[in-house]
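[job 0417] fold request received: Enoyl-CoA hydratase-related protein
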Amino acid sequence: MTYECISVAREDRVGIVTLNRPKILNALNLQLVSELVHELERLDNDPDIGAILLTGGDKAFAAGADINEMAEASAIEIMKRDQFAVWDRISRISKPIVGAVSGFALGGGCELMMNCDIVIASETAVIGQPEIKLGVMPGAGGTQRLVRAVGLRKAMEMLLTGEPISAQEALRCGLVNRVVPVEAYFREALKLAKQIAAQPPLAVQVIKKAALKAEDLPLQDGMDYERNGFYLLLASEDRREGMQAFLEKRKPRFTGN
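[job 0417] inference complete; emitting structure tokens
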């Protein structure tokens, strides 16, 4: 596929998607988001891909929504676009998404980052939801995911002041997994994505889905969901291969079946 707003590569079993509007700090316009979702879904359906790496540039992962598209649009026009419906499709990607985040991750960029399952941030990352400064609020999950990620009090502070936090503070809050020097963040994220991509594909997807359910289900319902996933994996060929390889002290050869 040829895209205008993103670039795509692959390394081993990792699909690498890079936001590519560097002159305006990867501002998220409708075309970029549409291309991104299309490619994420394509990679999700590709049996040769085990994990996805999502990144931007050293100066900006994504600095927010493209205000040029919104400044003159009426509320009715934006509602008719239903521009946030496409974001819901990102949350349905079954393969793990590793975010490699550097520089600005603001507004929609922060929301996109929070759609990643694991985030490796550079020490230059600046993360926040500044929509209130424009007289609006997050619309792609910012209020909901931020509360779940950092807790109500910290989320309230970030949302109601619009002030961003540093990479180190994001690490302390649990918003990112790891902070590394800017020259290493992409390499570290790719290394992690490759490690995940080498795992049995069916188990990876079932585990991701079960872990995400933990945010929405009561504990016992979540335990029941987990148990059903465990039983499902017992029936897989990869389970037989993994256990046999363990007993034979060799490297397993997983197929995703």
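[job 0417] notes: The chain has two domains: 6-197, 201-248. The domain at 6-197 is CATH 3.90.226.10 (2-enoyl-CoA Hydratase; Chain A, domain 1).
[job 0417] exit 0
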